[in-house]
Amino acid sequence: MKKIAILGSTGSIGTQTLEVISHIKGQFKVELLSAYSNYNLLIEQAKKFKPKTLIFGDSSKSKILEKNLKNEKIDILYGEEALNNFYKYSNPDMVLTALVGKSGLIPTINAISKNINIALANKETLVIAGDIITKLCEDNNVDILPVDSEHSAIYQCLLGEKNKNIEKIILTASGGPFRGKSIEDLKYIKKEDALNHPNWDMGNKISIDSSTLMNKGLEVIEAKYLFNIDINSIEVVVHPQSIIHSMVEFNDGSIKAQMGEPDMKLPIQFALGYPERLRNNFKKFNSLKNNTLNFEKPCLKTFNNLKLAFEAGLRGGNSPCILNASNEVVVEAFLNEKINYLDMTKFIEDSLNKISYIATPNLEQLIETDLLTRNFINKKIKSL
Questions:
Q1: Cα–Cα distances in Å, from 208 out to 122, 211, 214, 330?
Q2: Does pTM surpass 0.85?
């Protein structure tokens, strides 16, 4: 059986990964689980899947965890250092990184350095340090299997193809809850509105990113590094049905599209099982019941974050790191009702204009850029 470590097991992707593992018997063994704050769910998962190791973010909950798991043969560790060095406490064949934001960067780098294949649901890792990550994968002969539905779709479309024949990659976007809205319409948006995604069941941070189209912008940068393609050869189209998960156009004019139900368990299963396709009983797409597929051009005036992401991806250097760090801070501030919906893109743009640009940053410079950007945005929020 393939041994799997899941970083972020209590979040949306983590819980759906465990659903896949439960559904497909005899293929996978859970080696390690990590969570940041949801100790009740982590205890429940540990009792069911019996991993070798648990890592929990808050050591103040150690007595609760250890009391509830005293009859289980599980090592329990705590804190950021344990998470970053998870590979020391387990021996997985693959790690699925479903951590939120920057927290996935160091664990992913360390896993690659130890020749552990990656199922990547934490797109921010490639956004922050795409050049470093891709070089590290090449040096250590490590594969990254994308878990995002769009990048999984592209990966599948490119199987058996040559990169030199790619004309462009077409990333599809649902449009989120505010598709068709104007900037005026977005002035008084509340977090409950932004969290109400029409198609996908996701965590809070990615739901807000989807509503602003920042999620799609981050995916553009992720695609640049995953598929070694120029940003100018990536196009975003709004596809409200979320049935076509992405497309690749080739130099002869033909287009491959990967289709399926809007269900994250499908790309999760593909990543875990690759290179095999494993049979499941998940809901299948019915073309006769879903016989309308629409495509629209995204409005970059209304969804300025998508424009900012393309610009940051084109500029490269530490610009994507600035984009990501500022976005993480403003999304948290919006969720905590400290800023308004449209403040998010204003603050992100301001950080891209004000934080010093570095053309070829090393890891230490990227970590410093991340910190400077967060401090810059937090100072602006406090001044309101």
A1: 16, 5, 8, 10
A2: yes
